[in-house]
Write a structure and sequence with these properties.
alpha+beta, two-stranded antiparallel sheet
Length: 69
Amino acid sequence: MIRALLYSIFVQLLVSCGNGEVGAATYTIGGTLTGLEGGTVSLFNNVASDRLDLNTDGTFTFAKKSSKL
């Protein structure tokens, strides 16, 4: 009886772990823009092929997450 219970718990733990593979980490990239006096600045995240056109000071975050820094 105890052996069956332990086996059941073991199987449930394995199932809850998924397939054992760890997904690749992803990173949100952003920052703060200050000192922009008129005009527009374009920022590029070449890793995620993302572009931002900013025309005011403040914080920004690229829409696409990157798997590399």
